[in-house]
Amino acid sequence: MPPVFRFAPSPNGLLHLGHAFSALLNFDLARAAGGQMLLRIEDIDATRCRPAFETAIRGDLGWLGVCWDGEVRRQSEHFELYRQAVTRLSEMGLLYPAFESRSEILRLVVERERSGPWPRDPDGAPLYPGDAKALSAAERARLIGSGAPYALRLDMQAAVARAGDLSFIEHGAGPDGETGSVPARPQAWGDVVLARKDTPTSYHLAVVLDDALQGVTEVVRGRDLFFATSVHRLLQQLLGLPRPSYRHHRLIVDAAGRKLSKSNRATSLAELRGSGVTPQAIRRQLGLPPSA
Ligand code: GLU
Asked: What EC number(s) has UniProt assigned to this enzyme (predicted)?
């Protein structure tokens, strides 16, 4: 079976050189392997995603010479599928509702830190400090009935116990050079949020379901998502989904060595295009071979 690659941007800003690198790398690898290249629009966050950014993404990719096979998949059109997976995980007893607001969570972390450092996830955010897992069924039902907002969190301990030891295949490298068969450590993330009262999925759940549904065999993306792969591997195992292999690539940084951000117009592809830079010059700058 020919391999299937994908580029999966979120339309919450303009693409920059880092996205160009990811898109071109996927495209080149797909071409070289006689495989497919898919485009997926990851627009589950309705507060930040805009159709105008999707239009800009398509325009930038076309200009770069990146074309994709088949229909573009838009995550916002598949909420029912994500809901079904949430129901399955719930029925397996692996999810629980947590009712703390973001500011309450921060307050709890400050409280916990009075007696020593509180663990952080690989992105540097504190692990969930609350004890909603211990709420009684009656109390949960009462809070849900009262209309209180909540997040559905994965009971990481139970999930890991059920899934057993896991690993994933890394063809690129993690931040510390991890490559080959890499042990998954989803525990590092604590009880991650997989859905919210009004949002039927999180990034982690949607990405795993979509990769499986679209038959993606090679996930090629930035090294900033290397550690998230452990959560993805766990969800694949729990939901009985096939596992793709991974290639996490270096991140493109600015002159000061900082990761590029969507909010900085200066490094956007639109700005570079506007100033007369050519797609071939972008390839050269990114250290990629010229296109055929
Ligand atoms: N949508 C994610 C982003 O724009 C990428 C997800 C992925 O490649 O797994 O950062």
From this structure: 6.1.1.-
